[in-house]
From TrEMBL:
<dbReference type="GO" id="GO:0016780">
    <property type="term" value="F:phosphotransferase activity, for other substituted phosphate groups"/>
</dbReference>
<keyword id="KW-0808">Transferase</keyword>
<feature type="transmembrane region" description="Helical">
    <location>
        <begin position="88"/>
        <end position="105"/>
    </location>
</feature>
<feature type="transmembrane region" description="Helical">
    <location>
        <begin position="117"/>
        <end position="134"/>
    </location>
</feature>
<dbReference type="InterPro" id="IPR000715">
    <property type="entry name" value="Glycosyl_transferase_4"/>
</dbReference>
<feature type="transmembrane region" description="Helical">
    <location>
        <begin position="140"/>
        <end position="158"/>
    </location>
</feature>
<feature type="transmembrane region" description="Helical">
    <location>
        <begin position="170"/>
        <end position="188"/>
    </location>
</feature>
<dbReference type="GO" id="GO:0044038">
    <property type="term" value="P:cell wall macromolecule biosynthetic process"/>
</dbReference>
<dbReference type="Pfam" id="PF00953">
    <property type="entry name" value="Glycos_transf_4"/>
</dbReference>
<keyword id="KW-1133">Transmembrane helix</keyword>
<dbReference type="GO" id="GO:0005886">
    <property type="term" value="C:plasma membrane"/>
</dbReference>
<feature type="transmembrane region" description="Helical">
    <location>
        <begin position="56"/>
        <end position="76"/>
    </location>
</feature>
<feature type="transmembrane region" description="Helical">
    <location>
        <begin position="12"/>
        <end position="35"/>
    </location>
</feature>
<keyword id="KW-0812">Transmembrane</keyword>
<protein>
    <recommendedName>
        <fullName>Undecaprenyl/decaprenyl-phosphate alpha-N-acetylglucosaminyl 1-phosphate transferase</fullName>
    </recommendedName>
</protein>
<feature type="transmembrane region" description="Helical">
    <location>
        <begin position="219"/>
        <end position="238"/>
    </location>
</feature>
<dbReference type="GO" id="GO:0071555">
    <property type="term" value="P:cell wall organization"/>
</dbReference>
Amino acid sequence: MIIKSLQIPGLMYFFGFGVSLVAAFALTLTLIQIFSKLRILARPLNKLMIAMGKPVIPFGGIPVILSFLFVLWFFYFSGWINQENLLLFQKFTLGVILMTVLGIYDDIYHCAPRIKFLCQIIIAIILFLAGFQIDRIGDVIDLGSFSILLTVFWIVGITNSINLVDGIDGLASGLILLSCVTLSFIYLERNMVEASFLAVILTGSIFGFLIFNFPPAKIILGDTGSLPLGLLISLITLL
């Protein structure tokens, strides 16, 4: 994926991180208060050992995703981000929305594993056709027609790896945070400013949520969060 570079002063990294953190914190706190009043709780022992069997609030991924998308589009429309990246951000947003819808459906209706896996593959294929592709390995091996297979495997694999560990307080969100911080520095070192910036605002968003996800967790990511966040990490690595 070839992207236009960003021209953002270092201060804007901190601003992007700070805004995404505060937004995620405020939205998560609001969600906890609303759900607590409505008594909408996840069933004990739902899926994995969620919070050691105690009821907790689901759909924690919603404030994280909203925070990320808000900061992303805020920076775009404010002019800080190269305007030629509009199509790229639209693709990011499309993928996130599709995977979030799948996650919400699974959290509410407990989608059959085969159906969920098939939907993930379809979303991955859509994103491959949109331009998120692994075309070659290094500078030597051209994947050719195998590109779609490896790309779909990469996207679905990372997405599910995050989804599978979302059963212990703070584990999935902590891994996402660590991944985002690592990607931020790797891309910054390579002067891939835009990819680094995306990782930075995702870091702020997940950190604002993680505050409430430490043991004993008040809220969990659920599939609503783990699926699109895993997808985001996979897409950022393909930039």
